[in-house]
Amino acid sequence: MPQLSLYIDDETLSKIETAAKINQISISKWVSERLKESLANSWPENYASLFGSVDDDSFVVEKRNSFFDDSKREEL
């Protein structure tokens, strides 16, 4: 597995060490899991709560034509 070197400040390292210890996993595994989470193709947290939050008249459901307006077709 490839290795990655990071340069971080002492305060950040201390927080990472604490978080890894709380989760009872290695620092490497903790950082790896956080990177995977941040790079995952998923919707941001609370994304669904944005539904209906735009107050703009141009955001309306388009009226759809019914199938009754279609041309008559030959029955097979």
What does this structure look like?
It contains two helices and no strands. It is mainly alpha-helical and 76 residues long. Helices cover 34% and strands 0% of the residues. The protein has helices at residues 10-22, 27-39. The chain has a domain at 7-32. Helix 1 (10-22) packs across helix 2 (27-39). InterPro entries: Ribbon_hlx_hlx. It comes from Desulfoscipio geothermicus DSM 3669. This is Toxin-antitoxin system, antitoxin component.
By oligomeric state, this entry counts as single chain
The helix content is 25-40%
**Could you report the average pLDDT, rounded to the nearest whole number?**
87
Q: What overall form do the CA principal axes indicate?
A: elongated
The total strand number stands at 0
Terminal Cα span: 62 Å
Backbone CA Rg: 26 Å
Order of helices and strands: HH
How much β-strand is present in the residues?
A: under 5%
From the helix content, strand content and strand pairing, which structural class follows? mainly alpha
Q: Report the total helices.
A: 2
What's the main sheet like? none
Low-confidence stretches: none
